[in-house]
Every structure is written in C-alpha cells, then in structure tokens.
Design goal:
The protein has about 300 residues and is α/β, with parallel strands linked by helices. It contains 9 helices and 15 strands. It has 2 domains: about 220 residues, Rossmann fold (3-Layer(aba) Sandwich); about 60 residues. α2 crosses α3 and α2 packs parallel to α4. The longest helix has 16 residues.
Length: about 300
C-alpha cells in the first residue's frame, strides 16, 4: 500500500518546465529519498503535493484518494526556507501552528510537553524566535512540522544548520516517527543520510525522473564488480578475464589489489584463484556509494532516458 502516488505530473513556469511527466510512489511506513541537483524540480513537486501550487497535468493520490484540500491536515512540511515568525515567542508560535493543523490548544499543550522534554527546550518557551540560533530555530520548526502526527511528513534539507550532535538527535526522531507509522519524504543533498535513513529513492534531474527503486536495488544496479583484496603476496597471477585496476604495498608488508571480475562470474571463483597463490587478509567488494551513483547518473543523464532498478 502506498501513502502517495504521483502519476504523470507536469509543471510549466513561463519558459521553464519544472516537471516533465514525473511518476513515483511512496510506500506507507517508509522513508523515501527525493533526490536531485539544485533546480531539478524537487521543490516544485513538493509544492504540488502540499497544494501550494497545482500541476498542469497529471494526478496525485494521497492514501488511495485523489489529493484534495483536507489532506493538508494529514501532511507535515518542513521547507528548506524556514517559515517561523521571528517576533513571536516560541511557545505562542508552536501553539499557533498546531491549531492551524487542527489540534485544540489543550491537545497541542499535551503533545508539546513531551517534545519540550525530549529536545530540552523548556527555557526557550518565552523567547522570541529571533533570539535563537539557527539550529535552535530548526528544532522549533521540526516540532511544528510533526506535532500533529501527520500520515505524511515532508522534510526538505532537515539537517541544515545542525551540528553533528543535533543532526543525530533529529535522525533518531525521524526513525522513531517511521516506527510510529509515519511515512516520510526526505529531500537532501547529504547522500550519507540517504544511505543511513532511506528505504527507497527517486532521482530527478532536469525536470525528469531518471532513477528510482529501493536503496538496495539501486546500489546493486550500479555494482562495479571491483574487489579490494589485501594479501601477503607481492605478485598475483589471474586469468585474462580479470583486471587488476591498482596495487600497492602497505607498511606491514601486506599488499592491496583492486581487482575487477567478470560481471556474471561467482565471487568464489576469484577467491579460489587467490587462495591458491596467497594468504587473504581482506576480501571485500567495493560497492558504490549513493553519492557516487548520484554524480554518475546526473552526469550521464539524457532526456527521456529512465533507469529503473530491477
């Protein structure tokens, strides 16, 4: 079951086409990475989902229903450009946003008590937002985004302005929200966060979806079949079907080789070839990072060419 289905969405701004026939699905209870370089169309899609703007063509289904105005109460949106009122006090602002999302003042106070304790922000309650650091303001906006326990949470660069400790705090809260049943769209340029958090991803480039699938499927699709091998032999001899990409000697007189094997050949065959010649210290496949995949796909992208993880 999917919390969100985007079907053939197109959006044109004057002479710029922001989205061109984009389709994707966000499974319920998942963290979905919406990726792409600046100007790719991610923010345009988010604004259509949150009904800030409308698509020129296509349809969006929310929890099985065609997207309609009342669904906004079941969505939480943390925009990249933050939207707090700088002259308002923190407590007043949190209560205001909670009531905009349909909570009564009593319900909001009850829920806020828990968040205030978890984020250790009791002393901020009466302060104006402009008195807080950027990271503190980020915490306030994060709470405002998730306080009403929305079915779908959209986080656009949620770690912006955070030091590593607070970034880890928000990471743990995102994972808790997933465990509690929320579905999360996570838009970021931090590929290490994608690998850590996301179940599925879609990559948008030049207004088009160019890659989608689970993180596991995507990494599998872009395997290089190159292995990092540390052993005790200064020389290894392999059949011509293998390529030794590099080699070096370590300070402990061990040797490291990068070996590319034929795509469809079992790993054990390479391992057997090596075991007949040397003692193996380490044998590990060099899987591409999401950052490497992001760069490679964006650089190689041609219009109307979609890669789907199998």
């Amino acid at each position: 079951m999917n919390i969100l289905e985007v079907k053939h969405v197109t959006k044109q701004y004057a002479t710029h086409k922001a989205l061109n026939d984009v389709s994707l699905v966000v499974p319920k209870g998942s963290i979905f990475g919406l990726l792409g370089p600046n100007g790719a169309g991610k923010t345009s899609l988010i604004r259509i989902i949150t009904q800030i703007t409308q698509a020129d063509k296509g349809e969006i289904f929310f929890d099985g229903e065609l997207l309609k105005p009342e669904h906004i109460y079941q969505i939480g949106y943390l925009p990249e450009e933050r939207g707090l009122y700088k002259k308002m006090e923190v407590g007043e602002q949190l209560l205001y946003f909670a009531q905009l999302k349909g909570l009564s003042r009593k319900e909001a106070m009850h829920k806020l008590k828990d968040w205030i304790e978890r984020f250790e922000i009791k002393s901020w309650w009466g302060k104006k937002v402009e008195e807080l650091s950027k990271g503190m303001q980020q915490k306030i906006q994060f709470i405002a985004t998730v306080l009403h326990q929305p079915k779908l949470i959209i986080l656009d660069e949620p770690f912006s302005g955070f030091d590593p400790i607070n970034a880890d705090l928000i990471t743990q809260e995102i994972l808790k929200l997933k465990q509690q049943g929320s579905s999360i769209i996570f838009s970021t340029h931090r590929m290490e966060s994608v690998e850590q958090l996301c179940d599925d991803i879609a990559l948008i480039n030049k207004s088009e979806k160019v890659l989608d699938g689970s993180v596991k499927q995507v990494r599998e699709q872009f395997r290089t079949h190159i292995f990092n091998v540390e052993c005790t032999s200064p020389q290894i001899i392999l059949p011509d079907t293998y390529q030794v990409a590099s080699s070096k000697q370590l300070d402990n007189n061990h040797f490291v080789y990068e070996i590319k094997k034929p795509q469809h050949e079992a790993n054990n065959i390479l391992l057997k070839e090596l075991l007949n010649q040397t003692e193996i210290i380490r044998f590990a496949e060099m899987l591409p990072t999401m950052s490497q995949i992001f760069i490679d796909v964006v650089n190689a992208h041609q219009p109307n060419h979609i890669l789907t993880a199998q």
